[in-house]
Design a protein that fits this description.
alpha/beta, 4 helices, 16 strands, binds manganese (II) ion, 6-stranded mixed sheet
């Protein structure tokens, strides 16, 4: 059985400016701790790959220290990691990813798609079609090319992208970075791993086109140690017969209790 872990929207480097300074530091630290837990979970469960569907970083301007700290946090899971940029960390010519490259901070077990790209993982027999954002907003569907792309027969065919599945939000919501609601069928994907909505949502019942992401805490007070809170990971497994089983994991330790006075 193939097993992978799907996560998104880590938003590393977020500043939490609406919180008291001490709380803001605590929350920023908690993000790194969550990524370490996630890497340990992937290692414990011996998943075949971890898919990170965009918005790894919150901004293009994060510090070298933050970039290094993030990639160090991945260490418990030996890989492969598959990662794409989202709208917050779009693959600009000069941005957080080019900086990470210059810092030589990207680990060898990371498959990072800074342009439309296919990664073949022969050991795991998974092929991953990646549609990263190369600018903050696009108005065409970056996953269009998945439909026609041939991949090795018998391998698990997985897509990764970041954006808004069309037709699920109300009309008046600006939905840049559109993704067709039937992309998974049209592109004959076994699983489409999405990010951007900061929550988990299964798009179609009989197939698997899914959002996963860390829930954002807004400007509210915190209470330590409460259950629930930051939602950081979904887990998916696929058997050779392509039956997909999904288990969501809630790994967070912080919960919003009230608005600031
Ligand atoms: Mn996003």
């Amino acid at each position: 059985m193939t097993k992978f872990l799907h996560t998104a929207d880590w938003q590393i480097g977020r500043l939490y400016g609406s919180f008291d300074p001490d709380d803001a530091v605590t929350l920023a630290d908690a993000r790194f701790a969550a990524i370490e837990r996630l890497a340990r979970l992937a290692a414990e469960e011996r998943v075949d790959a971890v898919l990170v569907a965009g918005d790894v970083f919150d901004a293009q301007t994060v510090s070298a220290r933050t970039i290094r700290r993030l990639f160090n946090a991945l260490e418990p899971y030996p890989g492969p990691w598959v990662m794409i940029p989202g709208n917050h960390d779009a693959a600009l010519a000069e941005g957080v990813w080019s900086y990470a490259k210059r810092l030589d901070a990207l680990p060898a077990n990371l498959h990072l798609a800074l342009e439309p790209q296919v990664f073949e993982l022969p050991e795991q027999r998974i092929v991953v079609l990646c549609a990263p954002l190369t600018q903050r907003h696009t108005y065409g569907d970056l996953t269009d090319w998945f439909d026609a792309r041939e991949t090795p027969l018998g391998w698990l065919r997985v897509g990764v992208s970041h954006g808004a599945v069309q037709g699920l939000l109300s009309e008046d919501i600006d939905s840049a970075n559109p993704i067709a609601p039937d992309r998974a069928q049209r592109a004959r994907l076994d699983y489409l791993a999405l990010g951007d909505w900061h929550g988990t949502k299964r798009i179609r019942s009989h197939l698997v086109q899914r959002h996963a992401g860390a829930r954002s805490l807004q400007g509210q007070r915190l209470r330590a140690g409460a259950p629930g809170g930051d939602r950081s990971a979904g887990r998916a497994a696929a058997s050779p017969r392509r039956r997909i089983a999904i288990a969501a994991r809630w790994r967070g330790g912080w919960r919003c209790t009230s608005d600031r006075p």
